[in-house]
Amino acid sequence: MVDFEPKIIAFCCANCASAAAQIAEQASWQLPANVKIVQLPCTGRLDSLHLLKALENGADGVYVAGCQLDSCQYKSGVEKAAKKVAYVKKLLEDLGVEPERVELFNVGAAKAHKFIQIAEDMVNKVKELGPTPLK
Questions:
Q1: What does the pLDDT average to over 45-72?
Q2: b/e code 68-98 from CB counts within 10 Å (16+ = b)
Q3: Taking the domain 8-129, which CATH number applies?
Q4: What are the sequence ranges of the domains in the chain?
Q5: Whole-model pTM above 0.70?
Q6: What does each C-alpha distance from 47 to 27, 36, 68 come to in angstroms?
Q7: What percent of the chain has pLDDT over 90?
């Protein structure tokens, strides 16, 4: 699987995670090329179907990057997202698919380096898992 380059979709909060991504870009820190960002007003607006559809449509891994628990502009958005991610992980497990293909991370707006590290870690994790069996 050395040549396998996973396709990763990152659903990011417009307030915190996307701000971290912008800071990283301004600092010339490169997001892995195989990570595509989908910006959301709030991760609480994410539906479980968004995660599942991303996998069904060819993503090998999906992650949600939301606010830190104490800084969500919408109070409980990231908590709602955590429940949806847990639900999808359970569904994947029930289907015999690695639940590690879907993750949730909390990223503060000023944590650009952490944002890049999360993306790199997710790529490496999914690379080890191999291509999604859901295509």
A1: 88
A2: eeeebebeebbebbbebbeebbeebeeeebb
A3: 3.40.50
A4: 8-129
A5: yes
A6: 32, 18, 19
A7: 55
